[in-house]
């Protein structure tokens, strides 16, 4: 196994533009070089990931859900002084130092230094947003549980229809779950932020809440929060019923691993609604 050392007056010159390092690590400004006073072994080896050299690792969490980011870990052979900020307070006698360079095949190319206990291979870095998505997947978020309109109901042209949904953790929220990997834990909280009703007659109604349940005391009044008035019957529709679709948008806020963010999930529920006219008997 042959390794080539790039030595410039006992220093490694990193001519890398726009490289983002971890906190307290050396900074590199765009278009400039930065001298780090220790050396990194670079080159090829017949071994994959040994005690020295390079190792290619898929960044992410568990093996069954790798991300598209590929990271290369290059061991620093000549360790910097113990008081160097790159160690972040760890003991150089008990740890090795690797230079981590990552790419997703595009413009996302983060880099930085990773401290690893001696004898252990460099572990892939965990993506908190990926953990957030795993937490969301464990929630089993569903489409709205439609209380009204009912599939067995009979509705009338010109009469206000009140729409509302039942609320539960899986159909409306709030719903909370966590996911952990590599010592990082992310907590995600989900709740429906809006429901868009496609009424089957060409109309669409957006409701920013679960709707209001109808009571007989409301009489012929329109719903104060979520409703629709049909202007034609469903006689010309398939099976003589309008296909109504309730589409809920789940907004998920997550935090963990020193990061925070927001995700969105969409779910649907379908119901068939019969709309007729009032028959006047003379």
Please give a handful of descriptors for the protein shown.
mainly beta, rod-shaped, 2 domains, disordered N terminus
Architecture overview:
This protein is rod-shaped. Strands 10, 13, 14, 15, 17 and 18 form a 6-stranded mixed β-sheet that branches. 4% of the residues lie in helices and 41% in strands. With 282 residues, the chain is mainly beta. The protein is built from 1 helix and 18 strands. It has 2 domains: 4-125, no CATH class; 130-276, no CATH class.
Summarize the structure.
The protein is mainly β and 282 residues long.
Q: Which secondary structure elements does this structure contain, and how are they paired or packed?
A:
Layout: E1 4-5, E2 12-14, E3 34-36, E4 41-42, E5 54-60, E6 66-75, E7 95-103, E8 111-117, H1 128-137, E9 145-148, E10 154-156, E11 161-162, E12 164-166, E13 175-181, E14 184-198, E15 204-207, E16 227-228, E17 242-256, E18 259-276
Parallel strand pairs: 10-18
Antiparallel strand pairs: 1-4, 2-3, 5-6, 6-7, 7-8, 9-12, 11-16, 13-14, 14-15, 14-17, 17-18
The helix-strand sequence is: EEEEEEEEHEEEEEEEEEE
User: Strand fraction band?
Assistant: 35-45%
Average pLDDT reading: 77
By DSSP, the count of extended strands is: 18
Q: What structural category arises from helix and sheet content?
A: mainly beta
